[in-house]
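Exercise 7. Predict the joint structure of the components listed below.
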Amino acid sequence: MNDRTSHERAVHWGTAIWTAGAAGLIAALPWAASGRLPDRVATHWGSGSDAPDGSMPLWAASLVPALIWLVLALVVALVVRRTGAAARPWTVTTLLFSGTLLVGAQISAVRANLGHGDWHQARLPTVWVVVAVVAAAVAGGGGWVLGTRGRPTPRPVGRGRREPALAIPEGQRLVWFSRATNPWFQALAAVTGLVAVSAGAALVGGLAAPGLLWSLFVPFALVSLAAAGCASVQARVSEQGLEVAFGPLGWPVRRWAARDIESARAERRTPAQAGGWGYRLSSLGTTVMVRGGECLVVRARDMRAEFAVSVDDAERGAALLNALYAHRPG
Amino acid sequence: MLLRLNQADTRPLHEQVAGAIRRAVAEGECRPGDRLPSARDLSQALGVNVNTVLRGLRSLRDEGLLEFRRGRGVTVAEGADQRSGLQDRVLELMAEAARLGYSRTDLIEMIRGIP
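Solution:
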């Protein structure tokens, strides 16, 4: 645990130093070369030629890119605050990539203006832009490696310590049912479904050009099905094990035998952590995300990653699964 | 919601299923307006025949605890949480009376006799 906090502190300090350092560098570069720059500095180049099509006074050329960078870093910091530490690999990647890109762009811009009397004479060779983008990509890739490798591996789950377990009285059979629904997805499924059905009916009746109707029917029907699939999920824990059924029809279904589920727990997760809504694969394992909040997280035998499903009352579902595993025959 | 079936219970299975759901409603496991799992789900999870489950659900509907709605499945009726607790105690009383040799009519007479 000590390990984890010291690692986290190192990442925090590293991020803060990088943000401040890059901002300082971006702001200082034009001033450092101010003696050899024109009064207005060329800051924007058209895509077709290497001639500039936009300029700024020196102070703006120094502050505007630095402010863009600080705002971006602030947005990343806010997202991390909201979603927690699990989002770290992409945070480091984003900050390293965009910071390197902005510093590279600033260096290129200052270098292009250097020694010219008028900003119209500044030329920006394409190769500099390419070099800046490649450097940014390398830095971003390095950040990803750093973020994923430096992260402490999830603790191996020891039984009977932190997992909740339910007392099953002798001779009693306990079953647990739960579900979660997302009204937004239900509404989306209903609306798109209505459009698809109308288009389908018009198609059958021959009311309009078939080409147009097909182009309405197919995408709307697909979106409706996808939204309905993400709109609700049901979970059931009984002596047979865990069963997770998707969508309004309760199909498809995933099942695990009770003896295969080594540990279960409840955890709060947000769609940002899981990577969105629906059936998500991420560094957390598989997450069936219908709505943010309480999730039942299980670790099954023969499965490398964990499986999580967002359902209400997950605490007791986990407790029952742990109790069933403890009472397993043999 | 958490349902409990007691395997030592000697009552008919459909009554046990009804009792488990009644208890769940009384303990606030499912609130009025909540949708119950489907009869097929209940039967698979409890290891009880689906017709037995349906019989238990129907008796709860007759007691006014559940509502069968077309297209919405089975939902917990309004006020069922209070009613089911009372219902449970009445059933307990009847069982106790039967054990002591009083019939249902005796019990009704006793209640009537209370001023």
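Discussion. Confidence is low (pLDDT under 50) at residues 152-161 of chain A.
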